Amino acid sequence: MMTMSKIKFRVNDPKKRELPYAPERSYKSYRSELMEDFQGRCGYCNSYFGIIKKDYHIDHFVPQRIILKSRTHNHLLNDYKNLVLSCPTCNGSKSGKWPSEDPDKSIVSEQGFVDPSDQSYSDMFFRDNNGRIHPNESNLANYIHKELKLYLRKHQIVWSIENVISILKSKELNDENEMLTLLLSLLTEHFEIDKFN
Ligand SMILES: [Zn+2]
Question: Where is the HNH nuclease domain (predicted)?
Answer without folding.
Answer: 29-92
